Amino acid sequence: MKATGIVRRIDDLGRVVIPKEIRRTMRIREGDPLEIYTEKDGEVIFKKYSPMGEWSESANQICETLYKTAGCCATVADRDTYISVCGVPKRELADKHISSDLEQLMEARRLYQRKSGEKGLPVIDSSDKYVIETAAPIISEGDVMGCVVFFSEGDKLLGEVEYKLAQTVAGFLGKQMES
């Protein structure tokens, strides 16, 4: 565990403020759920909770099926990271932060499809090796939970079938999370 040198007091209602710098670095937004863990030696650990994390095994199977069906790299992301990837080595994207462009698409609840002649949005901010071809946000009970993404190295323009496939899978995952 990394010490930050920041000390906060608990108020009379039992609350503690997580400093803005830490929230920004860890991408913790207002209203985000946090899991609380305790250790025997008195440590209290806050961890971002991802409902999509519970679906990682299903997300792996879905990505594999999308890859085999569409012949294009596929990934499922929660609001911050890629939880499942198929079509490229997992170490390249799995558990990496999503790009700020994808984050904005999800927040706007927009479907996306790269158009001919368009450079494309990066999959991760630190590299432009992979670009998003199609993205469909996963919405459950009115909240954005993640995104289904088809991506490539910028050389594969996808059609209406892949667009509808991403949309269908995102809708399915959203409904599954409601039940």
Automatic annotation (TrEMBL):
This is AbrB family transcriptional regulator, stage V sporulation protein T. The keyword Repressor applies. GO terms for molecular function: DNA binding; identical protein binding. One of its GO terms (biological process) is sporulation resulting in formation of a cellular spore. Pfam families: MazE_antitoxin, SpoVT_C. It comes from Sporobacter termitidis DSM 10068. PANTHER family: PTHR36432, STAGE V SPORULATION PROTEIN T. SMART domains: SpoVT_AbrB. The keyword DNA-binding applies. Coiled coil: none annotated.
